[in-house]
Amino acid sequence: MDHSLYPTWVEIDLSAAAHNTRAVLEIAGVPLMAVVKSNAYGFGAVEISRTVLSAGATQLAVARFNEARTLRQAGITAPILVFGMVTEPEVDEAISQGVTLTLHSFENAVLFSQRAKTLGGVVRVHLKVDTGFGRLGVLPGETIDLVRACRQTGGIQIDGIYSHLAMADEAPDHPVTQQQIQRFTSILNALESAGLRPAWAHLANSAAAFGLPEARFDLVRVGTALLGMKPFYFQPFPGELRRVISWKAQLASCRLLPAGWGVSYGHEYTTEKPEWIGTLPVGYGDGFRRQPGNQVLVEGRRVPVVGRVCNDMCMVLLPHEIPVGMEVVIVGRQGGQEITTDELIDRWHTSQADITTGINWRVPRIYTNPVK
User: Fold this and answer.
1) pLDDT per residue as tens digits for the range 264-313
2) Separation between Cα atoms, residue 8 and residue 39, nearest integer Å
3) Which of 68, 127, 258, 348 is 20 to 30 A removed from 84 (C-alpha atoms)?
4) One domain for residues 24 and 118
């Protein structure tokens, strides 16, 4: 595919996402809910959803209702769970669109029941329990009371129950993780004894899907691993997965600047001798962070970013004159070198998901190797 139309672009390998989906299913041994929130972490929710569903995922999850709406408008009919808060009009639309909502409080239950009765429908929900994350969810001791309250008020169908692990990415044997698994298991046992256990119980994120068999329950809830990001911060990239994303640009300019010439705002970098300075059409407005130590790949070798990253451009120190239009890799492989999102975690002091969701949508996404 000719990318010469674009100054900078992201390539997304859909066959790699399909491969990763099948790998997660094989490792976990239970059904897969693919998390495609934040526009599939910047990869494109519609394209990624279609790919992972074709590869074996059976449910989807998003953070906001408008993300579910986008998927429904694209013709995606698979079950979709909304993790976050919804407004009253969104509850009404969820009823009509068959979208599953998160029930995380007694106040939530009142709203859902009222809207269902008004419209003559049913709100499908997964009950969220706070086992130690401190964000959304009823406390463990309130769970049975909430389930019984929903049965009494009517209009609410509880299809699932879930919680969210706080420390699984950090270390699978962390005591907080084990405590959360124990709490969740106790809740399920109590619901089972009372004849109230929902069909789907899920706790495992990408890290737990790979490293915590006891957290897999009825399905795993995986997002970043499907997109070629490593599940654990403390372990190498798993051999079972493939990288999905590459971020590239064309070299916009290559000039030999004289010694003592300042580069970019503040002149934090000044040439020590005549130096070849290249300009890339990529800046923090595209999601390339203004952090020290940035590098890119040119001709299969690492070259440093010099001076401050600008909103729309940055400068690099080149070993020699490079033709304008030469392909430069920001994330991905070129020759024998590779820059991954794993590497940028430490350099940018953030998470992999933050890196990919932060790539602005003015950077075109190019989808390669579609699954047929």
Assistant:
1) 999 999 999 999 999 999 999 999 999 999 999 999 999 999 999 999 99
2) 19
3) 348
4) yes
Q: What pLDDT, on the 0 to 100 scale, is given for residue 80?
A: 98
Residues 286 and 209 in one domain: no
Report the number of distinct structural domains present in the chain. Answer: 2
Do 52 and 139 lie in one domain? The reply is yes
Same domain assignment for residues 208 and 300: no
- 274 lies in some domain: yes
Residues 260 and 221 in one domain: no
| Active-site hit among 6, 37, 41, 367 | 37
Helix intervals (H) in the chain: 14-28, 37-41, 45-54, 65-73, 88-97, 106-119, 143-153, 175-193, 206-211, 341-348, 352-357
Q: Give ∠ CA 256-257-263 in degrees, rounded to 5.
A: 130
* Straight-line distance from the first to the last Cα atom of the chain, in angstroms, rounded to the nearest whole number: 18
Q: How many residues does the chain have?
A: 372
Q: What is the pLDDT of residues 356-366, one digit of tens each?
A: 999 999 999 99
93, 196: one domain? yes
Range of the domain at 275: 245-339
The predicted pLDDT at position 2 comes to 56
Catalytic residue among 6, 41, 233, 265: 265
Residue 246 backbone dihedrals phi, psi, to 5 degrees: -135, 140
The residue ranges of the chain whose pLDDT is under 50 are none
> Is residue 128 annotated as part of the catalytic site, yes or no?
no
- For the question of residue 265 being annotated catalytic, the response is yes
Specify if 370 maps to a domain.
no
The token duo for 208 is 């737990």
Question: Is residue 182 included in any domain, yes or no?
Answer: yes
